[in-house]
Write a structure and sequence with these properties.
The chain has 500 residues and is of the alpha+beta class. Helix content is 34%, strand content 25%. The protein is built from 15 helices and 18 strands. The strands form 4 sheets. It has an 8-stranded mixed sheet, with helices on both faces. The chain has a 5-stranded mixed beta barrel with strand order 1-2-3-5-4. It has a 3-stranded antiparallel sheet with strand order 7-9-8, with no helix packed on it. Helix 7 packs antiparallel against helix 9, helix 8 packs parallel to helix 14 and helix 13 runs antiparallel to helix 14.
Length: 500
């Protein structure tokens, strides 16, 4: 195998590899095979050999022949013998190739291989004198020729922008990235299993909405040519899922994408994944208990315990989790009392007195939310539920049974991340219409995130919806937490980036 390093440009390097490609074809070999019959994956080959050793067999008595396939990630030539590293999804293994075992022609053809090529290898698994588990190859075949060099010669890809834009290079150069996404997949699987075993039905609802609703956010707009109308990428599935409760389902959930045309930072991506569930005959207090039980199950399943590290701090997920009223938490951490007086201007003055910026368009509820975000959330490292939110920022939540200025709503914070949002769902169509009208007034005052009037949803409530509680869980942020990732982009396979 020759070296790429003396080729000055990327195009020179590609041409160098294309020349090798042609030589392979001239020998009558196809450099892009259709299939390869593996006897096992690399991780199993290593495990099977170690198991034979554990049974007490002498090395020369272990007869383990394998057919393995993977990407060649290293190559070291020593004259008439060479070593290569082969990697698949399960791990890596050393390959020993020598002229005597392969034959002169096959050994000489190693010159036409490059790092990044996919190979199929047959041979016996043994240990070298240095103790390395190795496949002593008696034949090999090229399965797919790589025409571009691996990032930094497989020493790791560190440029963040490149890692996000070309995730495939990131995964090749940094195999630990695969572990992050395996954990993400595992948490979704665990979440789905927890829900389905408790009678929740998984459903799919529309991604294109005639009215952007179900959350307070700015939507993406698209146009349908046949119907000649604008549609919105959904900001939340909430209103459709609640229609299903009206229709007769009692426990439903959906795991899917939401889209919000908002800012991008370490906690926000325009396209993100949510799990939303709705449960008839339940309220927010009962659902709070279920949320805690469900997430403890997910955390334990993914991390192997209830104590884990996130960004240098140890999180203890042992139940019970802390619970604070929102306004009580503001008194505790911000030192101001926004509960006794609901006057908007006085709330704004108190917020400004502790350094919170207040926009003129912000009402009382948004001022409370801003104080929480800036002065309370930074303290919420251990699992903490904040509950009982102002009615102005909870247009789809049921009024609090003891205080009509509040709603029966909670949010969950762990590691300073907001992970969940939940309500006792508003099922009074008269109250719901009034809330929508208040939202329209906010839009008129310049709040373009306020919700729109959805007449069909009100019609559904008029048919009748039983007492219901609903929950949304941010899958991406939960993945951040359980993989100790500082940015949401680290847990989304292909995050949205500025187009260049």
């Amino acid at each position: 195998m020759t070296d790429d390093t003396h080729h000055s440009t990327e195009q020179d390097l590609i041409q160098h590899r294309l020349n090798k490609l042609e030589r392979i074809r001239e020998r009558g070999d196809e450099p892009f095979k259709y299939t390869f019959a593996r006897s096992c994956v690399i991780g199993s080959a290593r495990a099977n050999y170690e198991a034979a050793e554990a049974e007490g067999l002498a090395h020369d008595a272990i007869d383990l022949s394998v057919a393995l396939a993977g990407r060649m990630t290293a190559f070291r030539s020593h004259g008439k013998s060479s070593f290569a590293d082969l990697r698949d999804e399960s791990g890596h293994i050393q390959i020993y190739l020598n002229q005597k075992g392969l034959g002169d022609d096959a050994y000489a053809a190693l010159d036409d291989l490059d790092l990044g090529d996919f190979l199929g290898v047959h041979g016996k698994v043994k240990r070298t004198r240095t103790g390395e588990i190795t496949v002593f190859a008696d034949r090999y075949t090229i399965l797919s020729k790589s025409l571009r060099a691996l990032p930094e010669k497989y020493h790791g890809l560190t440029d963040i922008e490149t890692r996000y834009r070309q995730r495939y290079l990131d995964m090749v150069a940094n195999p630990e990235v695969l572990d992050v996404f395996r954990k993400r997949i595992g948490l979704v699987t665990r979440l789905r299993e927890w829900l389905t075993t408790r009678g929740f039905l998984e459903v799919e609802t529309p991604m294109l909405h005639p009215i952007a609703g179900g959350a307070t956010a700015r939507p993406f707009i698209t146009h349908h040519n046949t119907y000649d109308c604008d549609l919105y990428l959904r900001i939340a599935p909430e209103l459709y899922l609640k229609r299903l409760i009206v229709g007769g389902f009692e426990r439903v959930f959906e795991i899917n994408r939401n889209f919000r045309n908002e800012g991008v930072d370490t906690r926000h991506n325009p396209e993100f994944t949510m799990m939303e569930l709705y449960e008839a005959y339940q309220d927010y207090l009962g659902l709070m208990d279920e949320t805690e039980e469900m997430l403890v199950s997910v955390i334990e399943g993914v991390t192997g315990g209830l104590s884990f590290d996130y960004q240098g701090e140890t999180i203890n997920a042992q139940r019970p989790w802390k619970r604070l009223t929102l306004l009580g938490a503001i008194r505790e951490f911000a030192g101001i009392d926004l509960e006794k007086n609901r006057d908007r201007d006085e709330a704004a003055a108190m917020a400004k007195s502790i350094g919170v910026n207040v926009d003129p368009a912000m009402g009382y509820g948004k001022i409370v939310d801003a104080v929480m975000s800036e002065k309370v959330q930074p303290h919420l490292v251990q699992p903490t539920f904040l509950y009982d939110y102002p009615i102005e920022i909870s247009p789809l939540a049921k009024r609090h049974r003891d205080n009509p200025a509040l709603t029966e709503r909670y949010q969950l914070f762990i590691g300073r991340l907001e992970l969940c949002n939940a309500f006792s769902e508003l099922n009074d169509p008269i109250d719901q219409r009034g809330r929508f009208m208040e939202q329209l007034k906010l839009r008129e005052r310049g709040d373009d995130e306020a919700q729109r009037l959805d007449e069909d949803f009100i019609a559904a409530l008029e048919v009748g919806m039983p007492p219901t509680a609903g929950l949304g869980v941010g899958i991406d942020r939960l993945a951040m937490l359980l993989t100790d990732s500082p940015s949401i982009r680290d847990v989304i396979l292909f995050p949205q980036l500025r187009i260049v």
